[in-house]
Write a structure and sequence with these properties.
The chain is mainly alpha-helical. The chain has helices at residues 2-43, 62-69, 71-102, 107-116, 118-121, 124-135, 141-148, 160-188, 192-200, 205-216, 218-233, 237-242, 254-264, 268-297, and strands at residues 46-47, 57-58. It has a single domain (62-297), classed as MetI-like fold, CATH 1.10.3720.
Length: 298
């Protein structure tokens, strides 16, 4: 017993300063991450409408079963998947192309790289308001351009066919610089001797890109792809501020749907179940992409 006490005392003296520094961060994680997650799990098993004034009632897994039968919830998953697929695809393509174009030394390329980062530095809420004005049917700058070239105006955010593509265009414009800066960092790490040796062997620029650049960027591209998929899947600000899920739920992403369920309809139990399904979907996407990345690198 005395030996165990001495061991504990030695450990305490050795690590007490470290424990002192990590305790505030640990408490914040418990209060702002662990507790809300556990409480969300708890609420998901109850029928709980905050506006009804009635006590919460335990209903087991009924919220999860009803969600999987809810056509609007399933539609929100489909909308989110479409938004994520096209948004990530074009962001990756344009980000790589922009990185290749700006992978040069000199004053002008440096200025262009700095300017191209501006969309990523502006918060999504402010960008959403600005682009709502640009998309406006009556006085928006985009419709002014269409009118100037003799084309009919478009109700970008008011029609089912154009609302979601309009949000995707904004997302691509905002986050293409993010992909660009990561790919640029990868390009700077490729030895120039490889390109010189390829040129001596008679390889042109296209062959050098597919035989040297692309394989060298594999790890960077996979990591960037995973991060963009997860981030795009969680999108909320743009559909919330620009369309609020309309028209006809064509831009009702899963995060927006859960928000409206929990904080507009006050169905906290139903919304908590939806939030946990979002968490599981993101975890599943992460696992799939990590497995894909591991097999691809092997």
């Amino acid at each position: 017993m005395a030996a165990e006490t001495n061991t504990l005392n030695r450990l305490w003296k050795k690590h007490r300063i470290g424990l002192f520094f990590i305790t505030p961060a640990g408490l914040m994680v418990l209060v702002f991450a662990v507790y809300p997650m556990l409480y969300t799990v708890y609420l998901s098993f109850f029928k709980h409408n905050m506006a009804s004034g009635t006590a919460r009632r335990f209903i087991g897994a009924a919220n999860y079963i009803n969600l999987l039968r809810d056509s609007q919830f399933l539609n929100s998953i489909f909308v989110t998947l479409v938004y994520t697929f096209w948004g990530v695809l074009f962001t990756m393509i344009f980000g790589v192309l922009l990185a290749l174009l700006l992978n040069k030394d000199g004053f002008v390329p440096g200025i262009l790289r700095s300017v191209s980062l501006m969309p990523m530095l502006i918060c999504s809420a402010a960008l959403s308001v600005a682009w709502v004005l640009m998309y406006n049917y009556s006085f928006g700058v985009l419709n002014a351009v269409l009118t100037a070239v003799g084309l009919p105006k478009m109700n970008f955010l008011g029609e089912i066919k154009t609302a979601l593509p309009s949000l995707i265009i904004l997302d691509v414009w905002q986050f293409t610089p993010y992909v660009m800066i990561l790919v640029l960092a990868g390009l700077k790490g490729i030895p120039t001797e490889l390109y010189e040796a390829a040129a001596i062997d008679g390889a042109n620029k296209v062959q050098s890109f597919f035989r040297i650049t692309l394989p060298s960027l594999r790890s960077v591209l996979i990591t960037t792809l995973i991060m963009r998929v997860i981030d795009t899947f969680k999108t909320f600000e743009k559909p919330f501020m620009m369309t609020n899920g309309g028209p006809a739920l064509s831009t009702d992403t899963i995060n927006l749907h859960v928000y409206n369920t929990a904080f507009i309809s006050y169905e906290m139990g139903y919304g908590s179940a939806g939030a946990l399904i979002i968490t599981l979907l993101i975890a599943l996407l992460s696992i799939v992409f990590m497995k894909f990345a591991g097999s691809f690198q092997d």
